[in-house]
């Protein structure tokens, strides 16, 4: 076979090429930073919005409740990629241009908010009605009851489905590559194309593992720590 690598050597040469990795690891690291920043922004805004929507729904105002339900159902039904494309490519026609980062952040935030609202609302419904009645009988206002009695328990119940959804939505940051966001996948694909070698994609996979394995482990720990004791 001459000098041509075979077997394991061929695999290493193709997918774990040290020379190619040395050329592009800095680009992958920058993409990793963008992905981490975007993920953190999506989680913070999505959970806050989802919590606010669940509280609004609990006001028991019919029109407001139906509006929240419609928002949650529509956003959960639409593929996140479609929402990103609409924000980035269609909104400029109505003078609402936004960057690739903003379009991806807004789309994923709304999707996470829809799922978060449903998870928190399910937690609220799972609580016995007597808890609210008992809290109100002590003189607490509706807001005090909701913030001090209902939400802490509902959030505890919502942790397992929420952690899984957060992981799923934050991994969708890779969809930003469609609108040329310089996150891990986009940078890895560009580097692979330029190098003619898939090693940058392997670096990208490693970057995703570095980012999301700690998130998965934290989610597992949080579920165990906040497990509801019936």
Protein traits:
single chain, elongated, MetI-like fold, mainly alpha, 230 residues, 9 helices
In words, what does this structure look like?
- It is built from nine helices and no strands.
- The protein has one domain: MetI-like fold.
- The chain has 230 residues and is mainly α.
- It has helices at residues 8-15, 18-57, 62-77, 80-90, 100-126, 129-137, 142-171, 184-195, 199-225.
- It is 78% helix and 0% strand.
First-residue to last-residue Cα separation: 67 Å
Order of helices and strands: HHHHHHHHH
Q: What is the CA-atom radius of gyration, in angstroms?
A: 23 Å
Q: Percent of residues in beta strands?
A: under 5%
Question: In CATH's first tier, which class applies?
Answer: Mainly Alpha
* Biggest sheet statistics: none
CATH-derived architecture: Orthogonal Bundle
CATH topology-level fold name = MetI-like fold
**Helix/sheet category:** mainly alpha
Mean pLDDT: 88
State the helicity in percent bands: over 70%
Low-confidence stretches: none
- Give me the CATH superfamily: MetI-like
Number of domains: 1
Give the helix tally.
Answer: 9
Q: What overall geometry do the principal axes of the alpha carbons give? A: elongated
Tell how many strands the DSSP assignment holds.
0
């Amino acid at each position: 076979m001459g000098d041509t690598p075979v077997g394991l050597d061929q695999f290493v040469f193709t997918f774990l090429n040290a020379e190619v990795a040395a050329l592009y690891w800095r680009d992958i690291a920058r993409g990793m930073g963008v992905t981490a920043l975007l993920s953190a922004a999506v989680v913070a805004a999505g959970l806050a919005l989802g919590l606010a929507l669940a509280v609004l729904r609990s006001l028991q105002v019919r029109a407001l409740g139906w509006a929240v339900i419609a928002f949650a159902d529509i956003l959960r039904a639409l593929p996140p990629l479609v929402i990103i494309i609409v924000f980035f490519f269609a909104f400029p026609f109505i003078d609402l241009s936004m960057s690739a980062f903003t379009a991806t952040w807004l789309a994923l935030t709304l999707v996470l908010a829809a799922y978060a609202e449903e998870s928190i609302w399910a937690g609220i419904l799972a609580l016995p009605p007597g808890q609210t009645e008992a809290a109100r009988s002590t003189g607490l206002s509706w807001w005090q009851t909701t913030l001090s009695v209902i939400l802490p328990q509902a959030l505890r119940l919502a942790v397992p489905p929420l952690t899984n959804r957060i992981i799923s939505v934050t991994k969708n940051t890779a969809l930003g590559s469609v609108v040329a966001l310089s996150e891990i996948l986009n940078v890895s694909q560009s580097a692979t194309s330029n190098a003619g070698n898939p090693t940058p994609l392997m670096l990208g996979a490693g970057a995703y593992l570095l980012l999301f394995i700690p998130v998965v482990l934290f989610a597992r720990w949080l579920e165990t720590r906040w497990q509801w004791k019936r």
